[in-house]
Write a structure and sequence with these properties.
Blueprint lengths: L2 H14 L8 E4 L9 H11 L3 E7 L3 H6 L6 H13 L5 E7 L6 H13 L4 E6 L7 H8 L7 H17 L3 E2 L4 E3 L7 H8 L14 E4 L2 E5 L3 H9 L5 E6 L2 H13 L4 E2 H8 L3 H4 L1 H9 L3 E3 L4 E4 L1 H5 L1 H7 L3 H12 L8 H5 L4 H4 L2 H7 L2
Helix pairs in contact: 1-2, 5-7
Length: 362
């Protein structure tokens, strides 16, 4: 976005919303520093109310960045971080990803250390997830590049965890790390730890929302989204009203990915014990060493559970939801163009029916 576009956007936003006490995040691309007015654009964002920046780095290996067609090199990352520091930006979080094409244990280590040397205090550390709609999945299918296997990905995960923990960083929600005393971000804390208390109002194409126990998505096709907005309609694409059972499962899946489930709070909220309602699921997970219950009654993921969080979440999907996922997945004729396939990163989409899911845990 140009400086003029950014100014127009935030002028319009601030006319309609009071952002003075809000956390306002903005994701930057490292190629920003290639533009002569990079400092002006950041100034516009700061004046507009932005107080948290996210920088999509992924790797500090130039060859990997080239393969991913990221549009930036290592030097741009260094210069962007330097510029943000010079302009007084204090709340900065960087994205890193492991499992990338041609990534080795050495290049992963070098990327972590390189960012630590820049003084970065907040990280988002994600594993690469494959989708048939993504170019990187086609690289895998064609065997054009070397990808880390399961064992190497696990080593990369624990390498990052060991280094960051030793240096005084702590987990926010899963994948999020911070060296500061405050939470990684207000957004993540509310998303994962507020249970079903916080409404989420989505603006923009493909936005995800949660209001009044209803979970929904905005139109994911740009043309359809724009035509509905311009017609004065709500651009909702798909949604569902969550039952009590759905809400309990949603609470467990979200809370387990962050500070854990306080068993006494769950029973107060829903009138039923976690250990009674989900006794079968908890027995499987505890036997596999993926969850534990602390002395103060908090159900949380173990170190093994963190790296298998998708499988843990999957076990809490109801048979009804899994069958609906399998039905919708079976109707997709071309996964390269289908909007559901493009936007759905849920573990349920990878296994389909409840019978297929159960086989994962046998």
């Amino acid at each position: 976005m140009t400086n003029h576009q950014l100014k127009t956007l935030f002028d319009m936003t601030n006319q309609r919303f009071d952002l003075s006490r809000a956390e306002v995040s903005f994701e930057l691309h490292p190629s920003l520093v290639k533009h002569a007015d990079a400092a002006d654009r950041i100034s516009t964002l700061l004046r507009g109310g932005v107080n948290r920046f996210v920088l999509g780095v992924q790797s500090l290996d130039w060859n990997i960045l080239r393969i991913l067609n990221r549009g930036h090199g290592v030097e741009e990352v260094i210069q962007t971080v330097k510029l943000l520091n010079e302009m007084g930006v204090e709340n900065l979080s960087l994205d890193l990803m492991y499992g990338l094409p041609q990534q080795t244990l050495r290049s992963w280590y070098d990327s972590i250390i390189g960012l630590l040397d820049m003084g970065i205090e907040k990280f988002n550390v994600f594993p690469l997830m494959f989708k048939s709609t993504d170019p990187v999945a086609r690289h895998l299918a064609r065997g054009r590049y070397q990808f880390a296997g399961a064992k190497e990905r696990i080593i990369m995960h624990f390498m990052a965890e060991h280094i960051l923990t030793k240096l005084g960083y702590r987990h926010g929600p899963i994948f999020y790390w911070t060296k500061r005393s405050q939470p990684h971000s207000v957004q993540q804390r509310r998303k994962y730890d507020s249970w079903n208390d916080n409404n989420l109002v989505p603006f923009g194409v493909g936005g995800f929302g949660y209001m009044s126990q209803c979970q929904f998505y905005n139109e994911a096709a740009l043309d359809r989204y724009l035509s509905r907005v311009e017609a004065g309609e709500k651009p909702v694409w798909r949604g569902v009203v969550l039952s009590q059972d759905d809400l309990m499962r949603r609470t467990l899946m979200f809370a387990l990915r962050s500070s854990g489930v306080l068993l006494s709070r769950f029973e107060r909220e829903f009138g039923v014990s976690v250990e009674e309602y989900f006794c079968r699921e908890l027995e499987i997970l505890r036997e596999a060493g993926l969850v534990c219950i602390s002395n103060d009654g908090v159900l949380s993921l173990t170190a093994a559970g963190n790296i298998n969080s998708g499988a843990v979440s999957l076990l809490f999907f109801s048979d009804n939801v899994l069958e609906r996922v399998a039905y919708n997945d079976g109707r997709i004729t071309d996964k390269r163009t289908d909007l559901l396939e493009k936007h759905d990163y849920s573990p349920a989409a990878r296994y389909g029916s409840s019978a297929e899911m159960q086989a994962v845990f046998r």
